Amino acid sequence: MPVAVLSGPVRESASSRAHVLEPYGLERLPDYDYVQEEYLASGTAAGEEFGTRILVRRPAEVRRCSGTVIAEVSHIWGGTSVWRAINRFLMRNNHVWVEIDSQAPSALGLVAASDPARYRSFRFAEGELSRDFAATIPFAPGASGDQLAASYDAFMARWWNATPQSPDILASVAAALRAGLPGCGFAARHVYLGGISQTGGVVRDFVRHQHHRYPGPVFDGYLPGASGGPALPDIDVPVLEVLGEGEFQSVRTPCGVSGQTRGVSHRRADSEVFRLYEVAGMAHRETRYLSEADRARLADCPLPPGAAWSRFPNSHVYHALWQVLLDWSQRGTPPPPSRYLTTLDGDELARDEHGNALGGLRTTYTDVPTSTLVAATPVGRPSWYHGNETPFDAATLRRLYGGPEGYRRAVAERLDDLLRTGTYLHTDAEEIRGAATVSV
């Protein structure tokens, strides 16, 4: 298998911060004594030369590195969803994060365009690619679920055609990471590929069509999140798939956008190498932790009367499930069984007396509820992929918990259950436990 040639790290300059497509979480690097480095990557992919870059965030002292790399590609329109979701988990555990700019639209249209001189070595086999790949997810309020799904599938075909070298770039960079980063002495013992939303689709495609093409496991495991499609096959390494409530077409149709799933065709039996977790209450994108840019962008987005942006902890779910995948891959620890949301006709979700989804992977937000959770906000773009919640009134809270102490006790008991099953991590459980309060 070809191994990408890495050169660098590329020197930072006063103006080079623009090459970071999503600065979210960078302010935490000093707190964990982490550094960011950029390397240029080159080689051959799909029979033609390529030139791109990778972005690395790792412990400043190489000896602290765990040996585990969690890699993702940058979203086709920029941003790194896995970093956004799990940067605290990564840095708490001294793992190394790597962004691989293998998708031509974002590599050329965003990274290279931010500093053409710095990235003059970038090259891709463009095919149907436009450097300013301007297509957006189809948005059609009032359209049926079938119409939305058809337009979205056509859009997805366009993005695959726009970046034919991406799979080989991913494989060759993974091999280079195992060989070692130049200039710092770090070589990966384990390399995993994750993605959320469009990049979750990249991971699913790699599992379905690419993994078997390379000698030896190119990646040691995969975690595709917030995507969907046909059921994934068994391969020779663990695959752990995560879907939020917000990926289902029945949830998204009122918003005028397609669900990532196609009915429940993604569901399949558990095996020695596969699990699927559908998460009740989880929106496509988290609003519990917001950057200043997020807050500014959402400030003018309308919400239903009485509602607020959801505090559902997407990140906590991803933290726990990434740990499940790593333990499964590296220690052989059996993961919990798959968890499916309860569905009625098609992919319509069954709901409890409060309107919250039944079944699936649970959290205190659904099992000790204080609000009705809506996983996709049907008030137009760009807020559809964020969830909202409408708090219960005081009478409902008194009926459910009696008072603040009863609520705190119920949260603590449920967290203990989740910790026992391995679907919550202690640090995150303590955050929830410490904030458990209601006014009745």
Describe this structure in words.
There is one protein chain. By secondary structure, the protein is an alpha/beta fold. The protein has one domain (5-308, 318-344): Rossmann fold (3-Layer(aba) Sandwich). The chain has twelve helices and twelve strands. The strands form two sheets. The chain has a nine-stranded mixed sheet with strand order 1-2-3-5-4-6-7-8-9, with helices on both faces. The longest helix is centred in the middle third of the chain and has 18 residues, at 145-162. It is globular.
State the gist of this model.
With 440 residues, the chain is of the alpha/beta class. The protein has helices at residues 81-92, 104-114, 145-162, 166-179, 198-210, 249-252, 292-298, 314-331, 364-367, 394-401, 404-421, 426-434, and strands spanning 5-7, 34-45, 48-59, 68-73, 96-100, 190-196, 222-225, 239-244, 274-279, 308-309, 371-374, 388-391.
